[in-house]
Design goal:
about 25% strand, about 260 residues, alpha/beta
């Protein structure tokens, strides 16, 4: 079964060209893996395109989406340290993010991250550390309870903006913590006035909720395409599931 998959890179700001470059590199790796497995049929026809508007990124569509740094903020249901009337949120992740948590541009940094989700199968060896690049980066300050409509309790918090509400419980899947940065919460909590951070867990720098993924750091600024490969695998799996559902529905309708 071959599926057609189009991946759009939102080219509003930031290193979108670098994302496109690593996505194309990831596609090449997936196609090479398929050849090595001697697959009898091509898994996917990939198309990586540049997108200039966020209009299609509506959480009610629940399309697979990945946001890095400012993209994580856009995908959050709540963001603090934000001016009213500033950047609107799209939503899709039931989290509250703390903008510019680590400070100004001059306080940007790089560090190795343990990303167990990149492990290729249960019997595989643990992946090597991933070099995380943090530039005026946010963190996930709190995991929120999924609600129908807006996160009204968050709206009452000073300096906090929320995403538009949803009509159903589209976000009823749990938020998974995919990566943390240990040891910095205790040192930085007084500096930035963050609330609700768990010092034992560490700073949450990557989360996933169903098919929406967010990272505080910038994988696209490295030469390492492993996260892009992992994400494309998630997208492919979802596309294949959707195709199977469509085929089953078509067969059922043909029998009636």
């Amino acid at each position: 079964m071959t599926v057609n998959v189009t991946v759009g890179v939102l080219a509003l700001q930031g290193a979108f060209y670098e994302h496109i470059k690593l996505l194309r590199q990831a596609v090449s790796q997936l196609e090479k893996e398929a050849i090595e497995k001697e697959a009898t049929e091509k898994e996917a026809n990939w198309d990586i395109v540049e997108v200039r508007t966020a209009q299609e990124l509506k959480k009610v569509h629940r399309k697979p989406t990945w946001g890095t740094c400012a993209g994580l903020i856009l995908l959050a249901e709540s963001a603090n340290r934000t001016k009213k009337g500033g950047q609107d949120l799209i939503g899709g992740l039931d989290v509250r993010v703390n903008r510019n948590y680590f400070g100004r541009q001059t306080e940007s940094f790089e560090t190795d991250l343990d990303l167990p989700f990149l492990k290729d199968g249960p019997s595989a060896e643990a992946p090597p550390p991933f070099r995380g690049i943090f530039i005026r980066a946010p963190v996930v300050e709190r995991i929120l309870q999924s609600v129908a409509g807006e996160q009204t309790e968050e709206a009452h918090r000073e300096g906090t903006v929320i995403a538009p509400g949803q009509d159903d419980m589209a976000n009823a899947w749990p938020v998974e913590i995919m990566a943390t940065l240990p040891g910095r919460s205790r040192r930085l909590v007084e500096k930035v006035g963050a609330i609700g951070l768990n010092e034992e867990i560490g700073d949450i720098v990557a989360v996933r909720q169903r098919n929406v993924f967010g990272t505080s750091f910038h994988p696209e600024l490295t030469s390492n395409a492993s996260i892009h490969v992992w994400w494309l695998r998630q997208v492919l799996s979802l596309a294949q599931d959707e195709r199977r559902s469509q085929d089953v529905k078509a067969e059922d309708e043909g029998e009636t």
